[in-house]
Amino acid sequence: MKSILVTGGCGFIGTNFIRFLFDLPDEHFIVVNVDKLTYAANPENLADISHKYSDRYFFEKADICDFPKISNLIDKYEVDTIIHFAAESHVDRSIVGPSDFIRTNVFGTFTLLEVVRQRIEKGKSIRFHHVSTDEVYGSLGPTGYFYESSPYNPRSPYSASKAASDHLVRSYFATYGIPITISICSNNYGPYQFPEKLIPLMILSMLEGKELPVYGDGKNIRDWLYVMDHCSAVWLILNKGKIGETYNIGGENEWENIRLVEYLCELVARRTNVPSNRYKSLIRFVMDRPGHDRRYAINCDKIKTELGWKPTVIFEKGLEMTVDWYLNNLDWLNKVRSGEYIKWIEINYGNRL
Ligand code: NAD
Ligand code: TDX
Questions:
Q1: Residues that are catalytic
Q2: Whose CA is nearest to atom 44 of ligand 1?
Q3: What's residue 334's pLDDT?
């Protein structure tokens, strides 16, 4: 029986990843979800999994910077695999207050690596998969792509902290022989994303009749991937990836922000029976994000040719599913924004927290 420790499993991608795992036909694993429950987390995301798989799914509230606690959890659950999603993840927040980003993304990753190093020195092997972002490569002009061999050029405190963590992970492979892999992914979208990120923020603002803030001239470009396609790539790397290697993951799906926001206006309009121009009239070009990366575009030939991965969800279809999910889960949106989920945690986990 594999014992998989997922960090940050109550956030956007971590939640989807755990749901992905429990959708697999394979039952030969347990999952330990370790999450500090920051503002971006909602353990209620996995309430059904927790209920249905009470013998194979375990939630532990913990900070990845807490060495003794993480160390105890690794022993308690006899963990043999770590999939590391936990991070402070929002670029705008990193510009306003970088310290949490350095703490969690750099020191937290270092702490996990140290716990693993201790085990490796005692002859126990723990596989470590680190989840990273295309933002570490910096900003592209109108042409070209990020390759695994591209130099790092992070330009926000968030991307700098992720770059630092990537380097630490590689150094622990080279120096201590820890069996690591790294994945570097483009922008994800889908259910359970905290509504500070572009797509859920725009959907929510439309529903509330609020302005839709588009940074700068709106011509910055992001490459979008449906979150479950990211999850399948991580799982494939874990099972078939070569130790020590880095794999780019992307949707080969570039959109200018303004074009995406306008398209979202049309989608939400169709679903809510409102003329799309009413939503489009809410668009406002606002002051640009400082250091706003112009364009991200991932070349993911390596994972496609070496591991046989490919994205399965067509963007237009995935966006439709995403819009529908938010429209059908307004309670979720309200809860994650209101702090009500914190009360839910107290009721459901009581003294354990
Ligand atoms: P998120 O902000 O939605 O979730 C992060 C989770 O980590 C939250 O549940 C939070 O409570 C937890 N966490 C934060 N600090 C912690 C700590 N000190 N100890 C334990 N748990 C902690 O983020 P996300 O969008 O799901 O991103 C997950 C990972 O994927 C991150 O490493 C991010 O850099 C990477 N990534 C994200 C994207 C994207 O588009 N969202 C793209 C590429 C890579
Ligand atoms: O209100 C907004 N208006 C706007 O124009 C917001 C929130 C964003 N934007 C722009 C900035 C970006 O060009 O939209 C684009 C997407 O912004 P975010 O959703 O904040 O994502 P981004 O900064 O691209 O980073 C995301 O993808 C890479 C995730 O937040 C990161 O965690 C991941 O590493």
A1: 134-135, 158
A2: 133
A3: 87
